[in-house]
Amino acid sequence: MPAAVMTITEPAAEQVKRLLSKRSKPAVGVRVGVRTAGCSGLTYTLEYADEKNKFDEVVEDKGVTVLIDPKAVMFLIGSEMDFVTEKMKAGFVFHNPNEKAKCGCGESFHV
Fold first, then answer.
1. Per-domain boundaries in the chain
2. Does domain 6-99 correspond to CATH entry 2.60.300.12?
3. Distance of CA 26 to CAs 16, 42, 49, 71, Å?
4. CA-to-CA distance for 85 and 70, rounded, in angstroms?
């Protein structure tokens, strides 16, 4: 069986479970993508996935389903999705071996 496009840490899986449990309607999972934005070119997107799209890449791990937009797969291969809680902020973080650089604020990247 081929390796998953992306791995999910335990904290990320727990946060996805929390988000899905608080949602007013059921979801298949969450969808990860990338879009053009920021000073470095690309930014990660994360949204509820109400259904699996035909070409979505599916990552099922630690009791959660993460769908990867087919246009984002080539940018996310080998990445790890994490959830980090710091003193002043908390959020999903992507550790991506394909990144060549990030902008100063950390909101965008390029490959």
1. 6-99
2. yes
3. 13, 29, 9, 25
4. 29
